[in-house]
Amino acid sequence: MDLNTIEESVCRFGLRVMGGFHGDEDQTMVLIGNAGPEMWAAFVAATSADERTSGADPLDGWTRRVLDEAAEELRARALFPFDGPPYHPFQQWALRTGTAFVSPTGPLIHPKFGLWLAYRGALAFQERLDLGAPPGAKSPCMTCTDKPCLGACPADAFKPDETQEGGAVYDARTCVAHIGSTDGKVCFEGGCLARHACPVGQEYAYEAPQANFHMVRYLKAQGGL
What CA–CA distance (Å, rounded) separates 179 from 186? Predict the structure, then answer.
């Protein structure tokens, strides 16, 4: 088993290998996620419009089905960020891969995909897989002097973080109120403007239908719809 074989198994669902790390007793964790429109295209092809607007989270359900299928093929165990409580520490796992970093606005950023990535699950292997050489990646935010992400939010939902130089604290209430208002139509339909402002990974930005789907789910989760 190697990362190329795992990639081949999940790419048919528009998903990608997002790095991995070795755990205790020769275990290996491989993170699976998405970047760009491929996953959305696969999800839309496999679901109806009614399913995509259903009360339960249809993307979580689809993700579970396809990653359970891949896990069975690969003799692994699928783990998901939406299983819980208690929830698996996906953010910490992503940082352990050496391919993701905390951005000034809070979400993780990838040197290639920018802010346009999400972790949909992980495959746990009871063996030590060859993960290749350490990625040796660095956060693209380290050399970004302008940090346009911090000034792009029309609702000013990112406040300076006094505990972290150059960082920000996300005000979810302000964000939700803006997205749910008439003034927030651009954000609601096309996605977070702070995310769009990041110069890294622009070619992986979600198109409007995908961005709006996530905004609707986010507002519902926050009680804004």
Answer: 8
